[in-house]
Amino acid sequence: MPLSRAQLEALTLTDIREPIAADLMAKAVAGPPFVQGAPRILNLRDLGGAPGSCVRPGLVYRSATLAGETPKDTAESTDWLSKNVRTVYDLRREKERQASPDPVAAGVDNFWREPSSAYGAPRPDLFTIGDGTVGWKYQYMVIAAGYRETFRNVLEHIRDRPGEPILIHCSAGRDRTGVLSGLLQALAGTAAEDVKLDYMLSRVGIETQRKRLLTVIMAGVGTLFKGPDDPGLYNLSSLRPQFWTAFLEDFEDKYGGWEGYAMSEEGLGFSAEDLAQIRRNLRGECERSRL
């Protein structure tokens, strides 16, 4: 039996250095938003299946990298993509794509463009401040600025190709994918607390590759910290609700919220008519949150 909303929320707060108990993990992924009967694509979820989501189920999927660990995994992934997705939007940078190319799936387009110069890798120095909130709110603002063109392309797809399912992903399906997912959830009318829970569910979604993720982070920026127990590295690896809350405060100040971001010239530059059509195409019947 799947976990309740309260149980899911508690599970998302699990320290990144600690494993999630196998029995709880099995229950957590036994129901939406985690995709059932899917191949081993890390952190694969249906935006429309998240608790409280107003996104139409089966329209937008989110995940980590799509390449499997084995040829069999990759074959299963491409089969699932061909049956469920029409366009993949890859949010990774070129070097990430070269290291782990997306598999080619029949009938599925793959969209990618390099983020603008406004985007940069996380600044390790900011993650040594407090609990990491300063670092993550800065980084999420950088993502919103640097990925404007790709985010615009995703919304154009939703506006112009109603009902055509897409998948959005980065390397872990957590931060870049999380900001874009937050935009889509908010435009669909999902309540702020439900958007935050969707963001936090990546703590559960990455669990099977948690140790590998920590290793990758250590290899990438670990030399800038004192060691694996350095608070800065711990903050950079973690996922906490206050990161999202702080980001939204700065985001509101700069853009006037998600709608302001979607319509302003500093943001995505859509008209009111565009935005109304995007909302109509995105929105389903809001899911009832699990009790």
Automatic annotation (TrEMBL):
<dbReference type="InterPro" id="IPR016130">
    <property type="entry name" value="Tyr_Pase_AS"/>
</dbReference>
<dbReference type="GO" id="GO:0004721">
    <property type="term" value="F:phosphoprotein phosphatase activity"/>
</dbReference>
<dbReference type="Pfam" id="PF13350">
    <property type="entry name" value="Y_phosphatase3"/>
</dbReference>
<feature type="domain" description="Tyrosine specific protein phosphatases">
    <location>
        <begin position="149"/>
        <end position="180"/>
    </location>
</feature>
<protein>
    <recommendedName>
        <fullName>Tyrosine specific protein phosphatases domain-containing protein</fullName>
    </recommendedName>
</protein>
<dbReference type="InterPro" id="IPR026893">
    <property type="entry name" value="Tyr/Ser_Pase_IphP-type"/>
</dbReference>
<dbReference type="InterPro" id="IPR029021">
    <property type="entry name" value="Prot-tyrosine_phosphatase-like"/>
</dbReference>
<dbReference type="InterPro" id="IPR000387">
    <property type="entry name" value="Tyr_Pase_dom"/>
</dbReference>
